[in-house]
Amino acid sequence: MEKTLPPIPVKRYFTIGEVGELCGVKPHVLRYWEQEFTQLRPMKRRGNRRYYQHHEVLMIRRIRDLLYDQGFTISGARNKLQELTQSERDRRKAGGLAEEVHLDGVEATDIEPEEWEAATAHQPLQPTAVSSLLAIDPVPWQQLRRELFEIRELLTSGH
């Protein structure tokens, strides 16, 4: 059932319909997965409308891959996600993330995404260890920032 999924647009929030299209699943499946996978916690606003963030879209794609492509059961996929989260946490503790991104001496992990966005809106990040990667495969800074927050969320989630 290998299906090529569309690229995820660079935006802050996605509706359940958009996420369904980006991940190749129907909205009712997403609502069910929210009950089964505690890592999925979309923001709910007026009228209980769900708004997913970039890291949740990536998590949904990972869940979809485990269930549809790799043949895991819901329980097996839940356990696999917990294993992946724990191994990332262990790797981080062992020094796998040796270099932090700094903004005027403040570690990026010490501030929330909204604060980071406000702080970096008029101040470009200074490339350090990632500059060689960017020279090979240029990635927009906003996308890189989102991916860093996604990694942070995966590492800090207690589930």
Describe the structure.
This protein has 159 residues and is mainly alpha-helical. The chain has two domains: 14-93, Multidrug-efflux Transporter Regulator, Chain: A, Domain 2 (Orthogonal Bundle); 102-156, no CATH class. It has seven helices and five strands, in the order βααββααββααα. It has a three-stranded antiparallel β-sheet with strand order 1-3-2. Strands 4-5 form a two-stranded antiparallel sheet. β2 and β3 (49-52) form a beta hairpin. α3 crosses α7. The longest helix is centred in the middle third of the chain and has 20 residues, at 74-93. The protein is globular. The two termini are 29 Å apart.
Mind describing the biggest β-sheet?
3 strands, antiparallel
Radius of gyration: 17 Å
Mean pLDDT: 77
Which structural class do the helices and strands define?
mainly alpha
Helicity level, as a percent range? 40-55%
> Can you count the helices?
7
Spans of 5+ residues with little confidence (pLDDT < 50)? 97-111, 119-138
N→C terminal distance: 29 Å
How many E-type strands?
Answer: 5
Strand content of the residues, in percent?
A: 5-15%
Give the overall form: globular
Report the CATH architecture of the largest domain. Orthogonal Bundle
Total domains, how many?
Answer: 2
Describe the structure using short key phrases.
159 residues; mainly alpha; Multidrug-efflux Transporter Regulator, Chain: A, Domain 2; 2 domains; two-stranded antiparallel sheet; 7 helices; 5 strands; 53% helix; globular
